[in-house]
Every structure is written in structure tokens, then in C-alpha cells.
Amino acid sequence: GENVEQHPSTLSVQEGDSAVIKCTYSDSASNYFPWYKQELGKRPQLIIDIRSNVGEKKDQRIAVTLNKTAKHFSLHITETQPEDSAVYFCAAVGDDMRFGAGTRLTVKP
Amino acid sequence: EPEVTQTPSHQVTQMGQEVILRCVPISNHLYFYWYRQILGQKVEFLVSFYNNEISEKSEIFDDQFSVERPDGSNFTLKIRSTKLEDSAMYFCASSQLANSYNEQFFGPGTRLTVL
């Protein structure tokens, strides 16, 4: 089955800096890669997704890149703000959805 | 905006008891899912359900678990003979179409505590 690895597990940045989270996946049949933000005690919320026929997608301060050959995809957050602090999960979707282990992002004011 | 709802928000049970977690997916969605998140860990896929049958299930989803769509709106997860390690947040999700290329919308979760 699919195996998703996510790095780093924790990330601390100063407000205004960029944050990058990286994930790799194993199943070449996976073709949809959502990113979720989860605040403490709350449900995962989709923030951006990318499909396997697209290499990069951007939505304001958030961008995601996908390299199908290397089977890795990344989340980029620019101009980080304290409210970006949360746990971020990547996921790879083929027959089912498998999540990465999560990255706890802390943005210091 | 329509949302996935789940009840109860918190369920406490004794080890060995059976629990039923309930979900109401978004009304025009056809695919339903259950996920588990042990405190501080990642979200884990349990099962997907379509057209009144299981589509996919993970290695976690053994004979202790079952799912059902008893009527046109509810989607339930039954856990028999609960164990301490079943304590987790259980999320239901639904999507309009199949897994691929389609956003899954998560419910707020049910926190299950097994004592």
C-alpha cells in the first residue's frame, strides 16, 4: 500500500519568513495530493491540493509543487503569520488516502 | 455551506463494550470514509464506503470494526469489544466522487475514550 513520509516533524519560523514542508510517496498510482491544516482539537481542513497532471499550484501565500518522477511534493508558505501555526498533513490519494505524519509549524511573532 | 456532522462529540466507554459512532455526510456526496487519529499522531485511513458496500479498508479495519449506512442520511462506525488502544479521535469524511481528484470533507470528529 501507499506510504507517505513527511519532513520535518517540527518547524519554527519567524513571522514573515517562508516555511517549506516536504513529502514523499511510494505508490505511483497515487494521483491526488491534498494538504490539510489541523488546529488543536479540530478537524483537518483542506488548504490546497494538486493533481498529478499539474506540477505547481499557487493560492495567495500557499503553493504546492509536485514531482511525479521523484514521487515527492512540497508545501510552501510565504510571509508566514502567527495564525499559520498548526499541524500540517500531506496526503496521497490513490485507492485510499494515506497521510504523512504531520509537521507542527510554529510562527513566532 | 453544507458540512459533515458527527455525534457524539465525545464518547466514554468501558473496555470490552461496543460503541457506535455516527456521521451525517454531506447530502449529495456518494463516498464516505472513516479515519482515526490517535492523540498527537497522524490521521489514519480506516475504510471507504460506496453504494452500500466497503470499497477499500486498511489493515487497521479488522473484524472488530464494521460500517453501515442504515438509512439515507447516516453512516455509522461500530467498534465491538473496545480496547484501550481504540482511544482516539474518529473522523468521518465524505466526497462527491471517488477518491481520486476529489476533496474529502471532514466532520468535526468523535473523541472516543476507552477506560
Describe the structure in your own words:
The complex is a heterodimer of chains A (109) and B (115). Chain A is mostly beta strands and 109 residues long. The model of chain A has no long low-confidence stretch (mean pLDDT 93). Chain A has no helices and eleven strands. Helix content of chain B is 0%, strand content 50%. With 115 residues, chain B is an all-beta fold. The interface between A and B is medium-sized, with 25 and 22 residues.
List low-pLDDT spans of chain A: none
Oligomer: heterodimer
The largest β sheet of chain B comes out as: 7 strands, mixed
Taken as a percent bin, the fraction of beta residues of chain B is over 45%
Q: Main β-sheet of chain A, in a few words?
A: 6 strands, mixed
Q: Quote the beta fraction of chain A.
A: over 45%
Report the order of strands and helices of chain B: EEEEEEEEEEE
User: Helical segment tally of chain B?
Assistant: 0
What topology does this entry show?
The complex is a heterodimer of chains A (109) and B (115).
Chain A (H helix, E strand, L loop, with lengths): L3 E4 L2 E5 L4 E7 L6 E7 L6 E7 L4 E4 L2 E6 L4 E6 L8 E8 L3 E3 L3 E6 L1
Parallel strand pairs in A: 2-11
Antiparallel strand pairs in A: 1-3, 3-8, 4-5, 4-9, 6-7, 7-8, 9-10, 9-11
Chain B lengths: L4 E3 L2 E4 L5 E6 L6 E7 L5 E8 L2 E5 L7 E4 L6 E5 L8 E8 L9 E2 L3 E5 L1
Brief sketch in words of this structure:
The complex is a heterodimer of chains A (109) and B (115). Chain A is mainly beta.
Keywords, separated by commas or semicolons:
heterodimer; A: 109 residues; mainly beta; 6-stranded mixed β-sheet; 5-stranded antiparallel β-sheet; globular; B: 115 residues
